[in-house]
Amino acid sequence: MQPTLLILAAGMASRYGSMKQVQGFGPSGETIMDYSIYDAIRAGFGKVVFIIRKDFADDFKARFEPKLKGKIKTDYVYQEMDSFLGDLKAPADRTKPWGTGHAVLCAMHAIHEPFAVINADDFYGKDAFVKAADFLVNRCTEKQYAIIGYALAKTLSDHGTVSRGVCQVDDKNNLVSIKERTKIYRENDSIVYEDEAGKHTVPVDSSVSMNFWCFHQSVFAPTEKLFVDFVKANQENIKSEFFIPLMAEDFMDNQGGQISVIPTSSQWFGVTYKEDAPVVKASVDKLVADGEYPASLWS
Predict the structure, then answer these.
(1) Is 117 within 8 Å of 260 (Cβ atoms)?
(2) Is 75 helix (H, G, I), strand (E, B) or coil?
């Protein structure tokens, strides 16, 4: 069975100030998502499921359906505020959806095979998709998931601080925990992060999560229960978010599961700040010039 790729594309980027998911970076106007889908097809994925906002659906489908037709199966899922709440009600003054874990849950009825989850606005690289597909086809089970781990130094921005989930692993490269570190940046030859207690160094060879997860389809049932419990516990906190790492922690701590951290040689890049856009464009242009990608992905 071919694995599925689930792309989280519902979020408007507040810091970037535009719908960066559909900004063209490639020579023929390709989006970052186009490159992810192209890499996924090359790696053997059989379907792509987009999580989008309903009010953006027509425009989104008009962009992607013509070029993907006949190349890979497509499906669309909407992340609505009240999805999977059951009898519960979202707080009246809550304005944003419930986060990446809730987005994954919203795809429950569209996915029936092992699947990978990625962000729409991150460039992950060919090697990452090859390794994810291999894991999903050959090693993914109800008790074994994976995350693609990136070298921290390859995920920083020259235009400001970034937030990264720093992976702690055991001697078998299984995930122990993900520590969310905000305000990470280069300082001389070191990489540091800041928190309330001050400034701390991060090991330069740290592996970080860029939200490229590999799950078995059995993840949905326990996630639904976890999400309902989360909403009950956070009725008063209108900014609380149900993130994918909460699913991962529950899987490891309460379900006896293991999550492999699979290292990739790929150079990650993404648009955290507007100033990153020219760098991303130059990076894509270089990959095309080096023959990694054709000048026009879909023609």
Answers:
(1) no
(2) strand
Residue 83 CA to chain centroid, in angstroms? 20
Spell out the domain ranges in the chain.
4-144+207-289
- Rounded to 10 degrees, what is the CA torsion of 132, 133, 137, 138? -50
Q: Which sign, positive or negative, has the C-alpha torsion 196, 199, 203, 206?
A: positive
Q: E strands within 127-206?
A: 144-151, 162-169, 175-187, 190-195, 198-202
Residue type present at position 61? K
Within 52-179, residue ranges assigned H as helices are: 57-68, 100-105, 126-138
Which H or E element spans position 215? Answer: strand 207-215
Tally the residues of the chain: 299
* Half-sphere exposure (Cβ direction) of 276: Cα atoms closer than 13 Å: 23
Q: What is the dihedral of CA 69, 70, 72, 78, to 10 degrees?
A: 30
Cβ-Cβ contacts under 8 Å for 43 (sequence gap 6 or more)? 126, 129, 130, 132, 133
| Neighbour tally for 198: CB within 10 Å | 7
Q: DSSP string covering 25-64, please?
A: -STT---HHHHHHHHHHHHT--EEEEEE-GGGHHHHHHHH
How far apart CA 108 and CA 4 sit, in angstroms, is 12
Contact 170, 228 (CB under 8 A): no
Average pLDDT over residues 62-80: 93
Residues 2 and 47 sit within 8 Å (Cβ to Cβ): yes
The b-or-e profile of 199-235 (16+ CB within 10 A means b, else e) is eeebeeebbbbbbbbbbbbebbeebeebbeebbeebe
- For residues 153, 278, 25, 18, the Cα torsion angle rounded to the nearest 10 degrees is 100
Q: Give the global pTM.
A: 0.92
| 74-98 pLDDT, tens digit each | 999 998 767 666 776 767 777 777 7
Homologous superfamily, domain 4-144+207-289: Spore Coat Polysaccharide Biosynthesis Protein SpsA; Chain A (3.90.550.10)
